[in-house]
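Protocol step 4 of 6: record predicted structures for both targets in the notebook before any analysis. Target 1:
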Amino acid sequence: MHKVMTVKKILSEKFTNYAKKSNSIEPFDNAHGSMWASAILIIPVLLFIPIQSYPTTAVFLAVIALGVLCSGIAYLLYFKIIKDVGATSALTVSFLIPLFATLWGFVFLDEKIELNTIIGMVVVIIGTLLVTEFSFNKPIKTIK
């Protein structure tokens, strides 16, 4: 299942390039189309991954809920941000995912954070600030 989700993630990210060039398409349509395209493109991969066990009804419903509620809503928000502030600023959210994953691991799982991790977090934050051309002297762009 992990391999399938990795392939789905890669395919979904490839559709971000499409989203950059499709400003006239509404965020809902972009999110809807991206989810369907990813799902359809992943089906042939499933033929080559052996089934180790069949999911129970609860597992199946949980996967559907995660896909619809988490990924679906996240895509709606993502494409709305692309439309409002542009693809470059929207993509910087992806830069912060490892930072927050490390933070949540520390808070909820008692994982250790060492000096190299902190240095990496600082590099990610500085890189995000540089990519977005953030300045403490100019006002932050508001979303309409």
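Target 2:
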Amino acid sequence: MSLPCLSGWGSDAMSWSIEFLPFVPWPVLWTLAGLGAVLLALLFWRSRRGAIFRLLSYALLLLAIANPQLKQEDREPLNDVLAVVVDDSQSQAIAGRTARTAELRKELEERLKSFPNLDVRWVNSNSTSADSERDGTMLFTDLAQALADVPPDRLAGVIMITDGEVHDVPASAAGLGFEAPVHALLTGKPGESDRLLAVEQAPTFGMVGEAQSLTVRVDELPGGEAAAPVPVTVKIRLGWSEDDQNASEIAKVVEDSGASALCVHGRSREQRYSRAADWDAITDKIGVDKQKAVYQGWAAKSGAYPQ
């Protein structure tokens, strides 16, 4: 048992306390105190001389048995911790969000330097298509891992630099595991909304070199303008090889599906970037008007795109 006696001053906290280390177990000490109280009550009831001195003597005896110890503690205060989570997911790489994220981080770094007694912990959260155990942007999962060694009462707050698409938001504030505020700095622009690209139908397998059919749907997520048009552009190559070119069939499907634009790279898959682009094939084989065609690739000699 210990009793606080005095708390300190200044930047370094100093505290004094009285700690009892009795020579006998506490139940025995309390029993002795109870017996003494009964005997002293009888002395006062019979008005015996010296009752007060006997009371003081007995109290000092019990105090000696309790064995009080004066303890001094010097404590150095710990800095508060601020966690800044930077969303590095794939959706952050579009529409200029990477540059805005870098600007926000730089500005935060400069502003946070002015706060004394504050430890800033930067947490980078990223996920790729190769992450089989991560389904989406997991900012709060990475935050919990980064703060595993930080007591909740040291956490001053959390700042998240993100586009707002987070897939592991706790159902309630109690699920956070701390009571510090959470702020979000959105990298998107006013009026922007998110769309979901969903594969409705796709073959479970396919042979290399054979055409495969799949159906893709673009959905407007909640918060966007449902009536706003969804422009879809498609980029293809001429085909798999010089002997296997199916760009004309794909172009017809793209046109019938209502795509806004079609960009054709004038090479096959096997050619990669090793040969000059065949611009004539874009118009002759696919049947696209030269005035409306979107070309890609460089010329054999001049290296310029057609006008």
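Step 5 preliminary note on target 2. DSSP finds six helices and twelve strands in the chain. The CA atoms of residues 174 and 290 lie 62 Å apart.
Proceed to step 6 after PI sign-off.
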